[in-house]
Amino acid sequence: MSIIKRRYKFLTVLSMFILCLIISIYIYACYDKDNRIDEITTGNIEEPAKLAEDNTVIPEEDNILVVYFKDEEETDEPKEIITVAEANRQTFVNSEGIQYFVDATLVIPKIGLNYPVLSETSDKLLEHNLNKFWGPKPNTVGNYVIVGHNYNNKTYFGKLDQLKNGDIIELTDVNGKTVKYKVYDMYYVDPSNRDCTSQLTDGKREVTLITCNATGSQRLVVKTTEVV
């Protein structure tokens, strides 16, 4: 066999080998692509992390934004005011036999407010002082919600509408620790709207103050966050 024929045969075999190799690579690529499409459509890939959910669950019977505020037909004066000095770490029992204690003390220098915050809330307790409505312990991570009447004589939360963004409030717990918070938002909501009680604070300490407007038709919400 001549040298030319042998070279021709070699090149022919080499060409066929290369062609087979290219065809094999193409078939494998198609197969791999189909597999990856199947994984996506059947969900066999890692799912993205879910967003945090608010676990705030307020019983319907505690619908304080609807019923536990001063009624215009009631007296314009508080029936009794428990002072900070009287309330310091004392336990009380109201006329209904409910036992409660002072959870914290709220001070708002701009409007001259200085009241204890009672640990429980009811229409009766709101006649005597500010009440904790929802949230964690005072000055801990979460949204500590305080409610109070808007009396015409400007006691309790009667001057709350005078605050503005940037104003400071101070919350002192029963251990004597005081944390300052800054107002960052103020708005009115319908009585049935309780979104302001959400505990999604992104790991921050917040205090929310709530009272009614002059007619009782809406609720004034003051949002504050810890000064850091």
What does this structure look like?
By secondary structure, the protein is of the alpha+beta class. The protein folds into two domains: 1-48; 60-226, Sortase, Chain: A, CATH 2.40.260.10. It has three helices and nine strands. An eight-stranded mixed β-barrel has the order 2-3-4-5-8-9-7-6. Mean pLDDT is 76; it is low at 36-52 and 58-75.
List strands and helices in order, with pairings.
Elements (H helix, E strand, L loop, with lengths): L2 H39 L22 H4 L16 H4 L3 E3 L5 E10 L4 E6 L11 E5 L7 E6 L20 E6 L4 E12 L15 E8 L6 E8 L2
Parallel strand pairs: 3-4, 5-8
Antiparallel strand pairs: 1-2, 2-3, 2-6, 4-5, 6-7, 7-9, 8-9
What labels would you give this structure?
228 residues, alpha+beta, Sortase, Chain: A, 21% helix, rod-shaped
The beta-strand count equals: 9
Shape call: rod-shaped
Biggest β-sheet, characterized?
A: 8 strands, mixed, barrel
Q: Rg, please? A: 34 Å
Mean pLDDT: 76
Detail the poorly predicted runs: 36-52, 58-75
